[in-house]
Amino acid sequence: MKRILVVKVTSLGDVIHAQAVVGDLHRAFPGVTIDWAVDDAFADIPRWNPGVARVLCAPLRRFKKMRSIKDLSAIWSSISDLRQERYDAVLDLHGVYKSAIISFLTRSKRRFGYSSVNLGERGAAFAYTHRFAPRNDANAWEGMRRTLGETFGYAIEAVPPTVFSIPKPATVPDAVKDMPFALLFHATSKEEKKWPTANWIAVAHSLRERGMTPLIPWGSDAERREAEAIAAGVPGARVLPKLTIEQIAQHVDLAALVVGTDTGLVHLATALRKPTVMIFSATSRPHFGVSIPGLCASIGDDGRPPSVEEALEAIASVQRPK
């Protein structure tokens, strides 16, 4: 194969982990060109992957709420981009209507998607000429890689390849002045995935004793207030200013440690091979967790948040001398 389009449009963590298939495909098909179709909200992720030649930004929100000529122009432009190349294969790793429409609009005669029972929306099946079934004997990320390997006849490496190259900041972030530092990603989109503030304070105290500065990112006003509550309980901890996703990625790239809930930016830390502890409270650790001995640890599980002691043990396990 000479040119492949991968379709994985959302969400942040899913798009991050799906990037590993780019490394797999380049090893399996030397010289292949790989493009990526993604929601424009997450377009930075494949742009950080040197193995991706072209990023196609689908304005999905405008498809839902088209209100102006400008919206129509953006939609038409994205369709034209999709049809600019003739792909040897389109791989839809998402399996819902929006990804199916993107796949169908390409000029490819070989469009791969999940079998009907495994689709997120069964009606998406109209778009595919070939099917694959996900592996259920591995976590979501390994299963996806193994599925493609079996479909196209290549073996994958046990540990996903590192594929990201985060852009260097134009100016040195303030965080560099506090090296070494640990990022504490306390925020999450779902209330049930949160870990108690008192637990974050206890972990931050331990990190200070280890000689690290706890830095606390946030996105919304509510998250900023929670970050301030954590920092107020830990002398030396700092609340970061509001950052773009690229700026956060740059901080992750410089961090000595990342501790956080099961969210996309913590998954980015694991993809960058940073010492990482991921906390699970309301999602399946076996299915979505990442475990790389001595480097990345996932703790807790759906309905069983980890204790502070478990978190500190996990931190020690990913910070032992290699």
UniProtKB/TrEMBL annotation:
Broad class of enzyme this protein falls into: transferase
Its EC number(s): 2.4.99.23
Listed GO MF terms: ADP-heptose-lipopolysaccharide heptosyltransferase activity
Protein's name according to its UniProt entry: Lipopolysaccharide heptosyltransferase 1
Topology in membrane: Peripheral membrane protein
Keyword DNA-binding in annotation: no
InterPro entries: Glyco_trans_9, LipoPS_heptosylTferase-I, LPS_LOS_Heptosyltrfase
Gene Ontology CC terms: cytosol; plasma membrane
Pfam families named in the record: Glyco_transf_9
Pathway noted in the entry: Bacterial outer membrane biogenesis; LPS core biosynthesis
Catalytic activity, reaction form: an alpha-Kdo-(2->4)-alpha-Kdo-(2->6)-lipid A + ADP-L-glycero-beta-D-manno-heptose = an L-alpha-D-Hep-(1->5)-[alpha-Kdo-(2->4)]-alpha-Kdo-(2->6)-lipid A + ADP + H(+)
Main location: membrane
NCBIfam families: heptsyl_trn_I
Gene Ontology BP terms: lipopolysaccharide core region biosynthetic process
Family, similarity comment: Belongs to the glycosyltransferase 9 family.
Subcellular location: Cell inner membrane
Entry keyword set: Cell inner membrane, Cell membrane, Glycosyltransferase, Lipopolysaccharide biosynthesis, Membrane, Transferase
